[in-house]
From TrEMBL:
Family the UniProt entry places it in: Belongs to the glycosyltransferase 2 family. OpgH subfamily.
PANTHER family assigned to the protein according to its UniProt record, in alphabetical order: CELLULOSE SYNTHASE CATALYTIC SUBUNIT A [UDP-FORMING], GLUCANS BIOSYNTHESIS GLUCOSYLTRANSFERASE H
Glycosyltransferase 2-like domain: residues covered: 194-387
Subcellular location as annotated: Cell inner membrane
Protein name: Glucans biosynthesis glucosyltransferase H
One GO cellular component term: plasma membrane
Amino acid sequence: MKNEPKKGRQFLDWQRLFFFVTALMFTAFPTVLFSNFLWRLGIEQGIVPLTILFAILNWNISWGATHSLIGFFYRRRRAKEINETPVDPDNPGSVAIVLPVYNEDPKRVFAGLRTMYESLKQTGRGEVFDFFILSDSTKPERWLEEEQSWASLCRDLDAFGRIHYRRRTVNTDKKAGNLLEFCESWGSRYRYMVTLDADSVMTGDTLVALYDRMEADPRIGLLQTAPKIVYSESFWGRLQQFSNHFYGPVFIAGLNFWQGGQGNYWGHNAIIRLGPFIDHCALPDLPGREPFGGKILSHDFVEAALMQRAGYEVRLAEDLEGTYEECPQDMIEHAKRDRRWCQGNMQHFWLLFSRGLTFASRLHLGNGIMGYASSLLWAIFLILSGILIYNRVRSQLSLLPTSGVGDIFQIPLAEHGALIGGVTFSLLFLPKVLALLDAFLTKGRTRLFGGGIQCTVSVLLEIITSAAVAPVMMLYHGQFVVFTALGKGVGWSTQNRLAGDGLRLYDAFKSHRTHALVGLIATLLARQVSDTYLYWTLPVSGAMMVSPFVSWIVSKPSIGRALGRMKILSTPVEIDTSAELEAVPVLQERFTQSNWIFDDEKPIPGVMNAVVDPYLNAIRVSLAGAAATQQNTEANNKILTERLLKQGNGALRSNEEKQVLSDVEMLTQLHAEVWTMDPEDLHSSWKPLFDRYRWSS
């Protein structure tokens, strides 16, 4: 069969050769200029390590610039037709849409799920798809709300048997283990699996298009979409959202130019061929202990590499719209997410030398590592260059006439330094300039971002803000790399994507006080070197000193909304929003109203809710029935029951609450007792729960 999976193509075809030669030229030219500049300054000690560091860091910049340059021209080509062979009606595939959750807000999760379910139904192809909520939630109030939301959703949509809910009581191997358990239990029933995050939204048309493309080409093992960021409110969130929408398409076109069928997996909003995934993509344990070894934290890159090693393609469907996600709304939450991603990417170091991986897979893994390690290298580069310049100034030696590349072109020393800076900054800002040019050359694209003037202002604002926060992110990432190397791991936490009222100034100072102190010390040290060096480094050290104020300002949703009213940092999803994106907040509000017993402002322990509320108690008893532990002794049950009734809120420890919630007999007995006991015999903390049912006087 002509479309059978096979080993990947030879790495160096003409497209890739062109791409990498371009990136190498972008790196080599400023590196030669820089090395020669040091030599002309008479800096001999340290010239080799400093030049190597400069070359590595410049390669990182050139890598991004080359993507955008080639992507810019690639987007001007005629669109390639996608192979969409009609689905075989006699052998239709089946798709499991899986949604792993971990203490996420159930209202947002189920609003997104309902939107996707109804959107699929409108396509008339929904019968192929089933949904699975794979819960790893550990907070009783969260998973009780998940259970109620699931039961209500299935009842409203008549979708029992189409929308499934499963919760693990032991969170082995976190998200990767959650998906593994699904594959082992349910994977054989489905041909494909669509992986989502708790904040994912995909339209029915996009889900059907993914399915059709997988059916049409059995060589594809994994098809990744390019999710667009949505629902951002704060200044910071809108910056991320604008960058994703405005710069992303040009960069991704360049990425697809060279990676072809050897792409990457980003962990969600993608479809996977389940057979080869189960057979070939089991995650190995890494040498050593966590965080640098042990269980793999960031599984997606590794699974893409293993899929390719098995002979299947991993592609990026850059042309598909209707795929969305959300992002953190301030710098601190952004850094918390990066902390987890950093540890996961640093672990990939062990896999760089694994046998059988394609060179493209090694590149993806290496780029993931450099995404964080480069920050540490930048910090070392700045410190080392400061020391060398300080020694040079302190020597009080005059500059000696030397020959080199600068002399060949007869460039004075000052202009030589300016040329290095000019080339480096040109490469740094080239992606932004090309994205702006792309917007003006693509018919109707500027309108989707608020207009030509608003586009230009948005790009300038994004550049200025990025320059202000880049030094702080450098410190963050450098710290994360060092912590990981020293064995200081990160826990599993739920990502906060809500803006709220933004950060308090006190919290911003508390989080960035070390950054501000580092900036102050760096400024004083630079002043000791020379005034010229101080001026060169002040944009970096100064940004660190004012980081608390910057972090506080960019967290504000009020500024984000003000910019939105001026159509600054606007995105296409705000100008021409889809029915699905409009539906999610509406449905979320409905879930808030229907889940009124889970009041976020006046939270009540989940176990007390499950004891009192008849509907919730019935759902919990039903779901606990099959998995009831039956390990509690009668005497122990009596003790727990007495304590809960007599002492109320806070009477039970977390594990005891879970014990009660897992025991059908105890839940049923407690429910009967609280509704039949004399209220005077119950602890006063039960009273608010009963007050909620006093609907008539």
